[in-house]
Amino acid sequence: MKRRFIAAIMAAVLTGSLMACGSGAASGKTEPAAENAGAGNEEESQPEETAGEDAAEGVTDMANAEEAADGGGSFEGVTLQVAHNLMDSNADSFEEQFRIFEEKTGCKVEVERLSSDADEMESVLLVRAATGNLPDIWVNSVGAKLEAMSPKENCYDLSGEAWVTERINKDYLSIVTDADNGMIYGVPSMPSNVAGVFYNKKVYEELNLPIPATWEEFLENCQVIKDTTDKNPVMSQYSNPSGCQILFLSQYYYVRDDEPDFARKYTNREIELHESDAYMRGLTKMYDIWEKGYQNDNPLEISWEDAALAIAEGNSVHIFCRTNIMSTVTTVAPDAVEDIGFFPLPDEDASGLGVGTWMPAAWCISKNSANTEAAVALLEFLTTNEGVDAYCAKTTPTGAFMLNGVELPDTVSTAVKEAQDWASKASTPVMEYYCNIKGSNMATILSMVGTGQYTPKEAIAEIEADNAIDAQQKEIAGW
């Protein structure tokens, strides 16, 4: 497959008007109900004399696409332009998926590498959207980044494809579906990152500790570890912004479970953060770990490699993290990968456990593509078990595929498989996928909670003030 590199100079072409974009919620993006995720969009009535012909042609196109995805169709002579910005093992996985699709269908896939700088890539795509020069397929971040692409005008609507709602995880669909018209704009490009508690199974076995189903049970386990060993019950990694935020942001599963419309109400300023007990418990949990002396002494100095090694060797027993930590464990302690297990961040209700997820970017099809039939067939193939197997042939996934009924290969760690199970049965994207209000000081505030410099009450006041500034800068209505 040919590679064409985009000129960096295109980023400079972006005008101020293209850079301006409101939040997803402000432009009508809300949390769609699961039952509406696959609803079709309402178009104007077609002229009577052409409606039947167009409908018949659409049925034929869909049948051809389905046949091609299953390996029986042919797209000889068709070339798809596919653009992404990855240079790591994920790119190798994409190459393998495209190679097999080429063999099955005769379609050629030309890969264009966009800038690895996310902001520069976004700028280039915005310019190309404005000039009608998008590739047939490209990878795009979801949430506010997808909203910025004006998907109704630029993305091909997949809501008419039955396989989309059958195969794609409903929570992923909720962030690529237009709540106003039911249009579906993309499918997941790679595994997600599932957040929860990773723990050393050997220590749990030695101390005969049960898997906790509530936060109180988790704290009881930590107390046993503290009283009977010299190990850190919790490894806290606050030296970078992601480590400070994972526990707190993954609490959103319980916030949304308590109030399904929380993000929309907050965006519209119908509710304040401190009014949600579930939201406040995210801060309380961080403070508990510090106040009870359960974490390591130097969380602001610990790297992810240090943290992964400490859990793998059992010097620390728990870490609040996402599934990509298993990639680091594989690097620093490959023989200890199967010593690590996973369970959801516990809360109050033992029967209501679930996980927060960080969602993968989406494969999107250009609305103006001349090759939509082949493009749809490729995306359908990528969501099949064969497509997933091709992905896994080049890299071991360290997260959950946002696909229903996927069978992970034996090379995937037990911890990741456990996370995949939870993502399939009880998960939600974290709040930032539904709400574009997030102050720039969030990580700093949370690190101060985790080191005892702010109480939860003090922290929530800081977060609300910081968010208000962000909302005002983005000119979100009501702020």
Structural class: alpha/beta
Radius of gyration: 23 Å
Stretches with pLDDT under 50, minimum 5 residues: 1-66
- The count of β-strands is 12
Biggest β-sheet description: 6 strands, mixed
Order of strands side by side in the largest beta sheet?
1-3-2-4-11-5
Query: Distance between the terminal alpha carbons, to the nearest Å?
Result: 49 Å
What characteristic shape results from the CA principal axes? globular
Describe what you observe in this structure:
With 479 residues, the protein is of the alpha/beta class. It has helices at 16-19, 48-69, 89-105, 118-130, 144-148, 151-154, 162-167, 170-176, 201-207, 215-228, 241-250, 252-258, 262-267, 277-291, 304-313, 325-332, 372-382, 385-394, 414-425, 442-450, 456-473, and strands at 3-5, 79-84, 108-113, 137-140, 187-188, 193-200, 232-234, 316-322, 340-343, 355-358, 362-365, 427-429. The strands form two sheets. A six-stranded mixed sheet has the order 1-3-2-4-11-5, with helices on both faces. Strands 6, 7, 8, 9, 10 and 12 form a six-stranded mixed sheet that branches. Residues 1-66 have low confidence and may be disordered.
